[in-house]
# Entry
Amino acid sequence: MASSATTFPRNDSPMTSSTFSDKIRLKLSMLWIFVVANYLYCDVLSLMDPTFLRVLLQGGPPGLPMTESFLLYAGMLMEIPMAMIVVSRLLEHRANRWLNLVAGALMAMVQIGSFWMGTGPTLHYVFFSAVEIAILASIVWTAWKWTATGTDERSVEGSPMATTTLRQP
# Structure
């Protein structure tokens, strides 16, 4: 009894159907998640610093009052990295690349500029800032190197595992 074989591409598998651009989108999104988590944890630790907490309870550092407007602008600024988590996954290549370049560079400049605001940086703030700036540099570098015609040299398309054979009776 002869059996016929039908070969189907393995496009249903998330491990083999991802394109190079999908992998870059995922990488950028994950880097934005990592930087946001660092922002949040640094802020949580800052609230445990008695000196910083006293300054906050007194209305903020000299020259930087914690007004409704300031808090609104700070919230809008922090919305950028949170939005980039989603934007990095959804936008097409060109807009995605440019938004990651601009947002990453802007947030790195803001982070560097924050050293000269308020009461001066604490050790934990310097540590988290170094991590955040490194992540943001990685985002900018990844976006800068991302080309529309990029291919993944580790693609499974040429491998024997790129297809699935189903035998029919």
The helical segments are 14-17, 20-46, 50-57, 68-90, 93-113, 123-145.
